[in-house]
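TL;DR need structure tokens for one chain.
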Amino acid sequence: MNTSRRLRVNMNTIERVRDGIAEVGLIVALFMAYEVTRGIAAGKEAVAFGHAREVMHIEQKLGLFHEIGLQTWFMTEPGLIRFLNFIYAYTHLAAIIIFAVWVYLFHSERYPMIRNTFLLILGTGLTIYILFPLAPPRFFPYTGFVDTLKLYSGVNYDQQSVSMLYNPFAAMPSLHVGFALFSGIGVIQVGRRLIYWIIGIAYPILMALSVVGTANHYILDVIVGAFITITAFIVMPRLTAFVSSRVNRDSQFESRRTVSA
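>> reply
TL;DR here they are.
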């Protein structure tokens, strides 16, 4: 009996690990699909630069055009700007994977909703990238923007070996911020302890500062990215409940029809 129980436990563990690897693979694959969208940008340089000028003009009208001032202030402290470079370049994918694995292993009942919310954010962002290509601030050095990743960290997204692996005109929305906020809200929802509140609040703020400080996104990009994430957390539970109710209703109808027949 004990041997049979251990065998079932081992089989369940193997299946769980296998399913977990598949889930992480799905998240990574979709995440990379968001990064590797170079083809979408082909031939849209003029449109993307035109949109960038429109965004800067709108920000000036709204009193939001403070990116250059913020970046200038950050650059007075080389250690700070290197830290923001690190947050932008190296924590984006890592945070998503760590959060997904944590939820899957320790809060599996929450995982399907978390995954579906992520997919909604990703799908919305990719759609906007296609419809509204936007050149990032670092493409406008003559206005005062500085590519801090290239200057301080030696990371050049525009060199040929790297540029083929990402869409340079995917500035709107900032999914760096959207995904950071997704992880932050998710950590708070699932963890519900003080340390999770601290992490959930601090990380999205750091990411927002990093995307602006590195001249990779406008403040409007940050706002739209955050809006998409918050909206996804509101919409997905309601959408899931609606779909479940329809499926249950159809199932009950089919069962009654079968019994009647």
